[in-house]
């Protein structure tokens, strides 16, 4: 498994979810989700709130952190 660049990708991988799995729950395309994962600063507050629930993150800020 390759090292994720940010917590969004890391949290998804820790849930053993594919980008397609998350995209389906968000009701968006996998391509669009991939772009969000590459550039989390483009995520809207509403989308971040939904991702927080899907990925079971403690806070929205946890989604946006960079992996050290």
Give a short summary of the structure.
The chain is mainly α and 68 residues long.
**Rg calculated over all Cα atoms:** 11 Å
The total count of helices amounts to 5
What value does the average pLDDT take?
A: 90
Instruction: Detail the poorly predicted runs.
Output: none
Strand content: under 5%
Let me know the number of strands: 0
How much helicity do the residues have? 55-70%
Q: In angstroms, what separates the terminal alpha carbons? A: 16 Å
Q: Which sequence of SSEs, written as H and E, runs from N to C? A: HHHHH
Global shape? globular
User: Which structural class fits the helix and strand makeup?
Assistant: mainly alpha
Major beta-sheet overview:
none
Description:
With 68 residues, this protein is mostly helical. The chain is 59% helix and 0% strand. It has helices at 7-14, 19-26, 30-38, 45-54, 60-64. Helix 2 packs across helix 3. The longest helix is centred in the last third of the chain and has 10 residues, at 45-54. The model has no long low-confidence stretch (mean pLDDT 90).
